Amino acid sequence: MDKMKYVVVMLSIISLAIIVITLRELKGIFIPLAIAGFLVVSFSPLTKLFKRKTPKILSLLLSVFILLAIAFLFGTLLFASFDGFTLEFPRYEAKLTTILESQIIKWDLPITDVKAYLVNEVDWMGVVNKLSISKVLSNTMGTFVSFSIGLILTLVFFIFLMLERDEISDRISSALSERRNHNFHRVLKNIEKSIQHYIGRKTLISLITSGFGMLFISIFHIDFVIISGVLLFFLNYIPNVGSFVASFFPILICFLQYGFGWQLFAIATALTSIQFVMGNLVEPKVMGNALNLSPITILIALIFWSWVWGPVGMILAVPITSAISLMAKEIRQIRFLYLIMCSNVNKD
Protein backbone atom coordinates (compact mmCIF):
# COMPACT_ATOMS: atom_id res chain seq x y z
CA MET A 1 0.00 0.00 0.00
CA ASP A 2 2.86 2.37 0.82
CA LYS A 3 4.43 1.66 -2.57
CA MET A 4 1.12 2.33 -4.31
CA LYS A 5 0.75 5.65 -2.51
CA TYR A 6 4.29 6.57 -3.58
CA VAL A 7 3.49 5.66 -7.19
CA VAL A 8 0.24 7.68 -7.09
CA VAL A 9 2.08 10.73 -5.71
CA MET A 10 4.83 10.51 -8.33
CA LEU A 11 2.30 10.06 -11.15
CA SER A 12 0.33 13.06 -9.84
CA ILE A 13 3.46 15.23 -9.85
CA ILE A 14 4.37 14.13 -13.38
CA SER A 15 0.82 14.73 -14.58
CA LEU A 16 0.77 18.18 -13.00
CA ALA A 17 4.08 19.06 -14.66
CA ILE A 18 2.73 17.90 -18.04
CA ILE A 19 -0.41 19.99 -17.56
CA VAL A 20 1.59 23.11 -16.69
CA ILE A 21 3.95 22.66 -19.66
CA THR A 22 0.95 22.11 -21.95
CA LEU A 23 -0.75 25.27 -20.66
CA ARG A 24 2.44 27.25 -21.23
CA GLU A 25 3.31 25.89 -24.66
CA LEU A 26 -0.26 26.03 -26.01
CA LYS A 27 -1.14 29.37 -24.43
CA GLY A 28 -2.34 30.62 -27.81
CA ILE A 29 -5.29 28.25 -27.38
CA PHE A 30 -5.74 28.14 -23.61
CA ILE A 31 -5.62 31.92 -23.01
CA PRO A 32 -8.59 32.59 -25.34
CA LEU A 33 -10.41 29.59 -23.82
CA ALA A 34 -9.83 30.84 -20.27
CA ILE A 35 -10.88 34.40 -21.16
CA ALA A 36 -13.99 33.05 -22.90
CA GLY A 37 -14.82 30.95 -19.84
CA PHE A 38 -14.61 33.93 -17.50
CA LEU A 39 -16.65 36.03 -19.93
CA VAL A 40 -19.37 33.37 -19.98
CA VAL A 41 -19.49 33.37 -16.19
CA SER A 42 -19.48 37.18 -16.09
CA PHE A 43 -22.29 37.40 -18.65
CA SER A 44 -24.33 34.72 -16.88
CA PRO A 45 -26.71 37.10 -15.01
CA LEU A 46 -27.26 39.12 -18.18
CA THR A 47 -27.82 35.98 -20.24
CA LYS A 48 -30.38 34.66 -17.76
CA LEU A 49 -32.20 38.00 -17.95
CA PHE A 50 -32.24 37.83 -21.77
CA LYS A 51 -33.47 34.22 -21.75
CA ARG A 52 -36.56 35.17 -19.75
CA LYS A 53 -37.74 37.55 -22.47
CA THR A 54 -36.05 36.36 -25.68
CA PRO A 55 -35.23 33.05 -27.43
CA LYS A 56 -31.88 31.42 -26.66
CA ILE A 57 -30.26 32.32 -29.99
CA LEU A 58 -31.35 35.96 -29.69
CA SER A 59 -29.99 36.21 -26.14
CA LEU A 60 -26.70 34.82 -27.43
CA LEU A 61 -26.58 37.39 -30.24
CA LEU A 62 -27.28 40.20 -27.77
CA SER A 63 -24.48 38.96 -25.48
CA VAL A 64 -22.05 38.72 -28.41
CA PHE A 65 -23.01 42.22 -29.58
CA ILE A 66 -22.41 43.69 -26.11
CA LEU A 67 -19.07 41.86 -25.86
CA LEU A 68 -17.94 43.11 -29.28
CA ALA A 69 -19.04 46.67 -28.45
CA ILE A 70 -17.02 46.66 -25.21
CA ALA A 71 -13.98 45.10 -26.91
CA PHE A 72 -14.18 47.61 -29.78
CA LEU A 73 -14.44 50.55 -27.37
CA PHE A 74 -11.46 49.54 -25.24
CA GLY A 75 -9.45 48.38 -28.25
CA THR A 76 -9.98 51.68 -30.05
CA LEU A 77 -9.04 53.69 -26.96
CA LEU A 78 -5.96 51.56 -26.30
CA PHE A 79 -4.43 51.50 -29.76
CA ALA A 80 -5.40 55.09 -30.63
CA SER A 81 -3.79 56.28 -27.42
CA PHE A 82 -0.56 54.42 -28.10
CA ASP A 83 -0.49 55.64 -31.69
CA GLY A 84 -0.83 59.21 -30.39
CA PHE A 85 1.92 58.59 -27.87
CA THR A 86 4.23 57.24 -30.57
CA LEU A 87 3.61 60.33 -32.73
CA GLU A 88 4.26 62.69 -29.82
CA PHE A 89 7.26 60.81 -28.49
CA PRO A 90 9.98 62.74 -30.45
CA ARG A 91 9.01 65.87 -28.48
CA TYR A 92 9.39 64.00 -25.20
CA GLU A 93 12.59 62.37 -26.40
CA ALA A 94 14.19 65.82 -26.73
CA LYS A 95 12.98 66.79 -23.24
CA LEU A 96 14.22 63.53 -21.73
CA THR A 97 17.60 63.98 -23.40
CA THR A 98 17.89 67.53 -22.06
CA ILE A 99 16.90 66.50 -18.52
CA LEU A 100 19.34 63.58 -18.43
CA GLU A 101 22.10 65.75 -19.88
CA SER A 102 21.56 68.45 -17.24
CA GLN A 103 21.57 65.89 -14.42
CA ILE A 104 24.74 64.20 -15.69
CA ILE A 105 26.50 67.56 -15.93
CA LYS A 106 25.14 68.65 -12.54
CA TRP A 107 26.51 65.57 -10.79
CA ASP A 108 29.70 65.64 -12.86
CA LEU A 109 29.34 62.07 -14.05
CA PRO A 110 32.24 60.75 -16.18
CA ILE A 111 30.41 60.71 -19.54
CA THR A 112 31.79 62.81 -22.38
CA ASP A 113 29.70 64.32 -25.13
CA VAL A 114 26.54 63.55 -23.20
CA LYS A 115 24.05 64.95 -25.67
CA ALA A 116 25.53 63.10 -28.64
CA TYR A 117 25.53 59.87 -26.62
CA LEU A 118 21.91 60.25 -25.55
CA VAL A 119 20.69 61.20 -29.00
CA ASN A 120 22.74 58.83 -31.15
CA GLU A 121 23.40 55.84 -28.91
CA VAL A 122 20.14 55.42 -26.99
CA ASP A 123 17.32 53.91 -29.05
CA TRP A 124 14.40 55.71 -27.43
CA MET A 125 11.85 54.42 -29.93
CA GLY A 126 13.02 50.90 -29.21
CA VAL A 127 12.39 51.52 -25.51
CA VAL A 128 8.89 52.80 -26.29
CA ASN A 129 8.11 49.75 -28.42
CA LYS A 130 9.26 47.41 -25.66
CA LEU A 131 7.11 49.22 -23.11
CA SER A 132 4.07 49.32 -25.37
CA ILE A 133 1.12 47.38 -23.95
CA SER A 134 0.01 46.40 -27.41
CA LYS A 135 3.49 44.95 -27.94
CA VAL A 136 3.36 43.13 -24.60
CA LEU A 137 -0.03 41.63 -25.41
CA SER A 138 1.14 40.68 -28.88
CA ASN A 139 4.20 38.94 -27.41
CA THR A 140 1.91 37.13 -24.99
CA MET A 141 -0.12 35.57 -27.81
CA GLY A 142 2.54 35.78 -30.52
CA THR A 143 2.69 38.01 -33.56
CA PHE A 144 -0.01 40.48 -34.56
CA VAL A 145 -1.59 37.84 -36.77
CA SER A 146 -1.72 35.27 -33.99
CA PHE A 147 -2.98 38.00 -31.63
CA SER A 148 -5.87 38.62 -34.02
CA ILE A 149 -6.47 34.88 -34.23
CA GLY A 150 -6.53 34.83 -30.42
CA LEU A 151 -9.27 37.44 -30.38
CA ILE A 152 -11.28 35.45 -32.93
CA LEU A 153 -10.72 32.24 -30.94
CA THR A 154 -11.94 33.98 -27.79
CA LEU A 155 -15.14 34.99 -29.55
CA VAL A 156 -15.62 31.49 -31.03
CA PHE A 157 -15.02 29.82 -27.64
CA PHE A 158 -17.40 32.32 -26.04
CA ILE A 159 -20.19 31.48 -28.51
CA PHE A 160 -19.75 27.70 -28.20
CA LEU A 161 -19.50 27.79 -24.41
CA MET A 162 -22.68 29.89 -24.26
CA LEU A 163 -24.49 27.43 -26.56
CA GLU A 164 -23.19 24.26 -24.88
CA ARG A 165 -23.13 25.44 -21.27
CA ASP A 166 -26.23 23.59 -20.07
CA GLU A 167 -25.48 20.50 -22.19
CA ILE A 168 -21.92 20.19 -20.84
CA SER A 169 -23.22 20.42 -17.28
CA ASP A 170 -25.83 17.73 -17.99
CA ARG A 171 -23.24 15.40 -19.55
CA ILE A 172 -20.96 15.70 -16.53
CA SER A 173 -23.92 15.15 -14.20
CA SER A 174 -24.94 11.95 -15.99
CA ALA A 175 -21.43 10.57 -15.56
CA LEU A 176 -21.35 11.15 -11.79
CA SER A 177 -23.02 9.38 -8.90
CA GLU A 178 -25.90 11.12 -7.12
CA ARG A 179 -23.73 12.37 -4.25
CA ARG A 180 -20.91 13.51 -6.50
CA ASN A 181 -23.42 15.10 -8.84
CA HIS A 182 -24.77 17.17 -5.95
CA ASN A 183 -21.25 18.19 -4.93
CA PHE A 184 -20.36 19.04 -8.53
CA HIS A 185 -23.30 21.42 -8.93
CA ARG A 186 -22.61 22.99 -5.56
CA VAL A 187 -18.92 23.56 -6.38
CA LEU A 188 -19.80 24.89 -9.85
CA LYS A 189 -22.30 27.30 -8.34
CA ASN A 190 -19.78 28.47 -5.72
CA ILE A 191 -17.10 29.00 -8.36
CA GLU A 192 -19.48 30.95 -10.58
CA LYS A 193 -20.65 33.08 -7.68
CA SER A 194 -17.07 33.73 -6.53
CA ILE A 195 -15.86 34.75 -10.00
CA GLN A 196 -18.89 36.98 -10.62
CA HIS A 197 -18.36 38.61 -7.24
CA TYR A 198 -14.69 39.22 -7.95
CA ILE A 199 -15.00 40.43 -11.56
CA GLY A 200 -18.02 42.65 -10.89
CA ARG A 201 -16.63 44.42 -7.86
CA LYS A 202 -13.08 44.56 -9.21
CA THR A 203 -14.39 46.20 -12.40
CA LEU A 204 -16.29 48.78 -10.35
CA ILE A 205 -13.21 49.54 -8.23
CA SER A 206 -11.02 49.77 -11.35
CA LEU A 207 -13.47 52.21 -12.97
CA ILE A 208 -13.51 54.42 -9.86
CA THR A 209 -9.71 54.30 -9.54
CA SER A 210 -9.27 55.11 -13.21
CA GLY A 211 -11.85 57.92 -13.06
CA PHE A 212 -10.23 59.66 -10.09
CA GLY A 213 -6.79 59.19 -11.63
CA MET A 214 -7.87 60.76 -14.93
CA LEU A 215 -9.50 63.62 -13.01
CA PHE A 216 -6.26 64.55 -11.24
CA ILE A 217 -4.21 64.05 -14.40
CA SER A 218 -6.54 66.49 -16.18
CA ILE A 219 -6.45 68.99 -13.31
CA PHE A 220 -2.64 69.15 -13.48
CA HIS A 221 -2.76 69.38 -17.31
CA ILE A 222 -0.69 66.23 -17.88
CA ASP A 223 -0.74 64.78 -21.38
CA PHE A 224 -2.14 61.38 -22.41
CA VAL A 225 -5.10 61.35 -20.02
CA ILE A 226 -6.91 58.56 -21.85
CA ILE A 227 -3.96 56.17 -22.07
CA SER A 228 -3.22 56.78 -18.37
CA GLY A 229 -6.84 55.97 -17.54
CA VAL A 230 -6.77 52.79 -19.62
CA LEU A 231 -3.58 51.67 -17.85
CA LEU A 232 -5.04 52.46 -14.42
CA PHE A 233 -8.16 50.46 -15.29
CA PHE A 234 -6.60 47.31 -16.74
CA LEU A 235 -3.55 47.03 -14.47
CA ASN A 236 -5.74 47.42 -11.40
CA TYR A 237 -6.88 43.83 -12.05
CA ILE A 238 -3.36 42.73 -11.07
CA PRO A 239 -3.48 42.63 -7.26
CA ASN A 240 -1.03 44.57 -5.09
CA VAL A 241 1.38 45.76 -7.80
CA GLY A 242 -0.66 46.53 -10.93
CA SER A 243 -2.15 49.85 -9.87
CA PHE A 244 1.19 51.24 -8.69
CA VAL A 245 2.87 50.17 -11.93
CA ALA A 246 0.11 51.94 -13.87
CA SER A 247 0.74 55.14 -11.89
CA PHE A 248 4.33 55.24 -13.13
CA PHE A 249 3.31 56.28 -16.67
CA PRO A 250 1.51 59.57 -15.83
CA ILE A 251 4.20 60.40 -13.28
CA LEU A 252 6.88 59.91 -15.95
CA ILE A 253 4.95 62.09 -18.43
CA CYS A 254 4.56 64.77 -15.75
CA PHE A 255 8.31 64.64 -15.13
CA LEU A 256 9.00 65.10 -18.84
CA GLN A 257 6.54 68.00 -19.03
CA TYR A 258 7.42 69.93 -15.88
CA GLY A 259 10.66 68.42 -14.60
CA PHE A 260 11.08 68.43 -10.81
CA GLY A 261 8.25 70.93 -10.33
CA TRP A 262 5.38 70.98 -7.86
CA GLN A 263 3.20 69.20 -10.41
CA LEU A 264 5.36 66.07 -10.16
CA PHE A 265 5.03 65.97 -6.38
CA ALA A 266 1.30 66.73 -6.58
CA ILE A 267 0.41 64.04 -9.14
CA ALA A 268 2.61 61.44 -7.41
CA THR A 269 0.91 62.19 -4.09
CA ALA A 270 -2.58 62.18 -5.63
CA LEU A 271 -2.18 58.88 -7.50
CA THR A 272 -0.48 57.17 -4.55
CA SER A 273 -3.24 58.36 -2.22
CA ILE A 274 -5.93 57.08 -4.61
CA GLN A 275 -4.25 53.67 -4.82
CA PHE A 276 -3.84 53.48 -1.05
CA VAL A 277 -7.44 54.47 -0.27
CA MET A 278 -8.97 52.22 -2.94
CA GLY A 279 -6.65 49.26 -2.26
CA ASN A 280 -6.60 49.33 1.54
CA LEU A 281 -9.87 50.95 2.59
CA VAL A 282 -12.49 50.68 -0.15
CA GLU A 283 -11.58 47.36 -1.79
CA PRO A 284 -11.57 45.24 1.41
CA LYS A 285 -15.03 46.63 2.27
CA VAL A 286 -16.45 46.07 -1.22
CA MET A 287 -14.76 42.76 -2.00
CA GLY A 288 -15.10 41.27 1.46
CA ASN A 289 -13.45 37.88 1.93
CA ALA A 290 -15.42 35.96 -0.70
CA LEU A 291 -12.33 34.57 -2.42
CA ASN A 292 -10.81 33.50 0.91
CA LEU A 293 -7.25 33.46 -0.44
CA SER A 294 -4.26 34.32 1.71
CA PRO A 295 -1.92 37.14 0.58
CA ILE A 296 0.99 34.73 0.08
CA THR A 297 -1.25 32.52 -2.10
CA ILE A 298 -2.15 35.51 -4.28
CA LEU A 299 1.52 36.49 -4.59
CA ILE A 300 2.59 32.97 -5.60
CA ALA A 301 -0.34 32.77 -8.04
CA LEU A 302 0.74 36.06 -9.65
CA ILE A 303 4.30 34.81 -10.13
CA PHE A 304 3.23 31.38 -11.39
CA TRP A 305 0.55 32.52 -13.86
CA SER A 306 2.80 35.33 -15.06
CA TRP A 307 5.38 32.67 -15.98
CA VAL A 308 2.73 30.49 -17.65
CA TRP A 309 0.66 33.10 -19.54
CA GLY A 310 2.47 36.43 -19.14
CA PRO A 311 0.50 39.64 -18.37
CA VAL A 312 -2.83 37.95 -19.17
CA GLY A 313 -1.98 35.27 -16.60
CA MET A 314 -1.41 37.93 -13.95
CA ILE A 315 -4.88 39.37 -14.60
CA LEU A 316 -6.53 35.92 -14.47
CA ALA A 317 -4.40 34.61 -11.58
CA VAL A 318 -6.79 35.42 -8.73
CA PRO A 319 -10.04 34.01 -10.23
CA ILE A 320 -8.23 30.88 -11.49
CA THR A 321 -6.65 30.29 -8.08
CA SER A 322 -9.99 30.86 -6.37
CA ALA A 323 -11.63 28.24 -8.61
CA ILE A 324 -8.82 25.75 -7.88
CA SER A 325 -9.20 26.43 -4.16
CA LEU A 326 -12.95 25.78 -4.22
CA MET A 327 -12.44 22.52 -6.15
CA ALA A 328 -9.70 21.38 -3.75
CA LYS A 329 -12.06 22.03 -0.85
CA GLU A 330 -14.46 19.32 -2.08
CA ILE A 331 -11.86 16.67 -2.99
CA ARG A 332 -10.72 14.83 0.13
CA GLN A 333 -7.36 13.77 -1.28
CA ILE A 334 -6.23 17.33 -2.01
CA ARG A 335 -8.21 19.27 0.60
CA PHE A 336 -4.91 20.14 2.27
CA LEU A 337 -4.27 22.49 -0.67
CA TYR A 338 -7.43 24.41 0.18
CA LEU A 339 -6.36 24.66 3.82
CA ILE A 340 -2.96 26.01 2.72
CA MET A 341 -4.40 28.49 0.20
CA CYS A 342 -7.31 29.93 2.20
CA SER A 343 -6.95 32.95 4.46
CA ASN A 344 -9.56 31.94 7.03
CA VAL A 345 -10.09 28.25 7.77
CA ASN A 346 -12.72 28.99 10.43
CA LYS A 347 -14.88 30.64 7.78
CA ASP A 348 -15.86 27.18 6.54
Describe the structure.
By secondary structure, the protein is an all-alpha fold. It is 85% helix and 0% strand. The chain has helices spanning 2-25, 27-42, 44-53, 56-106, 114-121, 124-131, 133-141, 144-174, 178-219, 225-235, 242-258, 262-287, 295-330, 335-341. α4 (56-106) runs antiparallel to α5 (114-121), α7 (133-141) packs across α8 and α8 runs antiparallel to α9. The protein is globular and about 70 Å long. It starts with a helix and ends in a 7-residue tail after the last helix. The model has no long low-confidence stretch (mean pLDDT 77).
Present the secondary structure layout.
Blueprint: H1 2-25, H2 27-42, H3 44-53, H4 56-106, H5 114-121, H6 124-131, H7 133-141, H8 144-174, H9 178-219, H10 225-235, H11 242-258, H12 262-287, H13 295-330, H14 335-341
Helix pairs in contact: 2-8, 2-13, 3-4, 4-5, 4-8, 7-8, 8-9, 9-10, 9-12, 9-13, 10-11, 11-12, 13-14
Low-confidence stretches: none
H/E order of the elements? Answer: HHHHHHHHHHHHHH
Strand content: under 5%
Tally of strands: 0
- Quick one: biggest sheet? none
Category by helix and strand content: mainly alpha
Helix content: over 70%
Could you tell me the mean pLDDT?
A: 77
* Shape descriptor: globular
Q: What's the helix count? A: 14
Could you tell me the radius of gyration in angstroms? 24 Å
From the N-terminal CA to the C-terminal CA, the straight-line distance is: 32 Å
